[in-house]
């Protein structure tokens, strides 16, 4: 008796919801698109799962997302809308990785930053990622004032970079500051250390002076780089709107650091040739403090007469006055540290 021939079972086409599949369009009719999935199965895309604007043609290879493994007709339900969204987010990741600069339109603002539109998606620019000319500078950090300044940017188009993208949470974060930094770096390539530039004083703070160079770059002069002499009041050396010359002493990423004092020779370099310990000199009182008096013996050269080196009758009775010229004795000299010790005793 002959044995019955065993049927060889063909492996079932392994597919699950969420998979991305590729196939050829084999039929388009009545608002449906049929897709041959490499001869292993047939998929169908219903009208509500594809955009009318995106036309597909017979024979075209397309990608789609599985939304149902098998319907009543034995067809695999597919979606083009889902894949369109996936492709958009994949493209966003590529833009982020490449560092490409893109344009976004500001559609709204909140206290944390700007809500923007990009490729019909909503994104966000945190205030900390705004360029310096758009950052809300509010001294008292009043939240309503900050919001008002941010609202003023609604309707504008900004150049930005993508710094965070997450399809799962639909998070899309942009940075305008990154673009500013990149442009500044490119602009700064033409500058060299020790080069002398011209600029305009545009800001003064307790630490130094902001300088605009070529109407684009803000350079910075630290208070210690304004003069060889001690600087107590910056406004006595430079004023807002003043045109100045300065030497570039450092370039760090997007920042350029300047010096005014290094345009002139350090007067302390020759001080030992002119002055020695024990020598008597005339000095002008510049400042009186609880620990002594600051004295100028020539332009750029200042010394300190400590309270212990001033007769108490003069100091306590306030017989020493600012602007007064007196005879001092040099009791210590440290040119490298720009220190000069004086005595009235």
Annotated CATH topology of the largest domain: OB fold (Dihydrolipoamide Acetyltransferase, E2P)
Q: Helix segment count?
A: 5
Strand content: 35-45%
**What is the 3D shape?**
rod-shaped
CATH class of the largest domain: Mainly Beta
C-alpha end-to-end distance? 135 Å
User: How are the strands ordered across the major sheet?
Assistant: 1-2-3-5-4
Mean pLDDT: 87
User: So, the CATH homologous superfamily of the largest domain?
Assistant: Nucleic acid-binding proteins
How many β strands by DSSP? 20
Q: From the coordinates shown, what is the CATH architecture of the largest domain?
A: Beta Barrel
* Oligomeric composition of the shown chains: single chain
Can you give a write-up of this model?
- With 345 residues, the protein is mostly beta strands.
- The chain has helices at residues 80-98, 143-151, 177-188, 271-274, 312-316; strands spanning 20-29, 32-37, 41-46, 61-68, 76-79, 102-110, 113-118, 121-126, 157-166, 171-175, 196-205, 208-213, 217-222, 243-252, 255-259, 280-289, 292-298, 301-306, 325-334, 339-343.
- The relative contact order is 0.07.
- Strand 9 and strand 10 (171-175) form a beta hairpin.
- The longest helix is centred in the first third of the chain and has 19 residues, at 80-98.
- The N and C termini lie far apart (135 Å).
- It is rod-shaped.
Please tag this protein with its features.
disordered N terminus; OB fold (Dihydrolipoamide Acetyltransferase, E2P); 4 domains; five-stranded antiparallel β-sheet; 345 residues; rod-shaped; mainly beta; five-stranded mixed barrel
